[in-house]
Amino acid sequence: FNGEAKSRWVNVSEYEAFRPDKIAVDGGKQNLKELNAIFSKPIKEVLSLEMEVDDAALISIDSNGTNVCVCQVNYEVH
Description:
Elements: H1 12-17, H2 22-25, H3 28-47, E1 55-62, E2 65-71
Antiparallel strand pairs: 1-2
Protein name: FMN-binding split barrel
Organism: Tanacetum cinerariifolium
């Protein structure tokens, strides 16, 4: 499943050939902890200019980029 909860089929040979991402393996959790200490508040502040944001945090990092989780407690679907 990807970040949008959509499943994606993986080719068996592609799966067998997969090697862990160097950034994720070499201290991924510690990197996220340090990056969140520096950037979580500024990310929240920038996003708050456009919408109400209760929290924002980097939740993953690898050579393809990062994923940010944004929380809105009073979120309403219109």
